[in-house]
Amino acid sequence: MNVFRSTVFALFAIGIALGRAAADTPVAVGLFSAPVRVERAGSAFDETQGNAAELISGGYDALLLRIHLIRQARESIEIQTFIWSNDECGRLMIYELIEAARRGVQVRIIADHMASDQDPAIVAFLATVHPNFKVRHYRPVMALIKPSVWQTLWTGLRSFRGINQRMHNKLMVVDDAVMITGGRNIENTYFDHANGLNFRDRDVLAVGPVVKAAKVSFDAFWNFKEVVAGEDLADVAALIEQGHFARYAKRADYDFGGYFDDLNREADDLDLIRARFVDRLHPVDSVRLIVDVPGKSVGIFRHDSRITRELRSMASEAKQSILMQTPYLIVSPAARRLVRNLRDKNPDLSIRISSNSFASTDNILAYSANYRMRGLYVDDLKLQIYEYKPHPANQARVFARYDEVAKLRATKNPAAPPPYLCVHAKSVVVDDRVAFVGSYNLDPRSEKLNTEIGLIIEDARFARALRDEIEEDMRPENSWVIGRRKMPLPVAAVNTLVDGVLSLSPLDLWPIQNTSSFELRPNMPAVPTGHPDFYRNYREIGSFPGTESRFTMKEALTRLYKAVGTPITPVL
Known about the structure:
Layout: H1 3-21, E1 51-56, H2 59-72, E2 76-81, H3 88-102, E3 106-112, H4 120-128, E4 133-138, H5 149-158, H6 160-164, E5 171-174, E6 178-182, E7 197-200, E8 203-207, H7 210-222, E9 227-229, H8 234-242, H9 261-266, H10 270-276, E10 282-284, E11 286-291, H11 306-316, E12 321-325, H12 333-345, E13 350-356, H13 364-380, E14 384-388, H14 395-398, H15 402-412, E15 420-423, E16 427-430, E17 434-438, H16 444-449, E18 453-458, H17 460-474, E19 479-484, H18 489-502, E20 515-520, H19 534-537, E21 538-542, H20 553-564
Helix pairs in contact: 2-3, 4-8, 13-20
């Protein structure tokens, strides 16, 4: 089916979906249409109304959707990302975007300098490949794409905040009419194509007036004084002047390694795209984009960044429950105060958090901070914590390409361990009525340093769908539970006191954790950690389940960082 018919089809289908949401208003919207305007008689234009949204949870589908949208774009594509890697998925996205630029689409990309690929030759190629294709870099060190270690250290010494304040936003806007935001960067690990770690992540696809707010935010970052074009970086400019860099003229030059034969075909299959994406879009009551300003707030550890205020306000309205999924669980002093205030107002408030286990985490430093403060989380804040297994029972559903990736890994390295899953989704559900999906982690970096973005969606149907996804990941077959160790009462009391005090001190050498991981016994019903039958239904399995041996280097590092890592917690 040709591109024109594809566009017409999508316009028709999405128009019907949104027409149901605002049948009394003139709606002209589609995945690839002109910017949306929804006006109601006697009221001002409201970007939060007349939108449709859906969750995009599977990594393969997330990549398929992006490639389809790039191919259908007619006017403009804007992308923001924290990480853009030079791997198969990264090269596929670049190839498709360059092809879009060659057919007249204005393509603009902003990538954070610190976390993305830093090859001057590749950046020189991208800076010169086509006038319609433009790439800028957020806060490059010393106006270089590839600074030396010493240059990076010197920059950090001159400006600690300048080197640490990064752009963590993930955003894609196509033709001012459709947007994707969530947790995914541009790399194999986010799209079910990595041979080892693969992320359990989540995006939101949205169409409607809210896209206008996303475009405004992108433009603010594009014009930020510390966002620099590739051709203006000194080492890249020198290469461009010399002309000594490779050019990639055809698809085969990008070395996809046979990864994308199915995806290449499916991205143009309109029946498939309709079934997986178009038909699943549903009108939502209210959608609001929340996003930090470029550069975040002034000051190294301010608590009043825009997105932090919005999420704090959302959580403070909880009456029955807060359900959260976050890859890193580092609850700052400000967040702890919020939880205590909520507990004072409503002692029965349920706060459940899905996060990574020791075996699934991709960040040992962050996990060690969580490990150090878990007693505080369980005893003081009364958090119910579920840690995702690297090989959960729902792996076949959430990682549809597992068998294919595992086979490829075994072919390349038979001795290598199989692929595994790691939570990277950042989501919140409050009282089953309002939801957040975006780039914001529950850690100090998102709160105080990194710029973040996301959507707050007030819609019971959407909130329940997100709740169901997170609760599935929390099930006993998919996660271990963190609970108090069963100790004699005098020992437990002393250990709780010592562990709690030292967990917040600069040096924590106390060897006995007050908490541990638990798994459900066979044929026993699941109950919360505070239930009278918890210790009868669950068995303790230690602090570091899921590892291949009794003591690993990963465990040694976790214990070391737990002991001495308190001073660096504010930048984790």
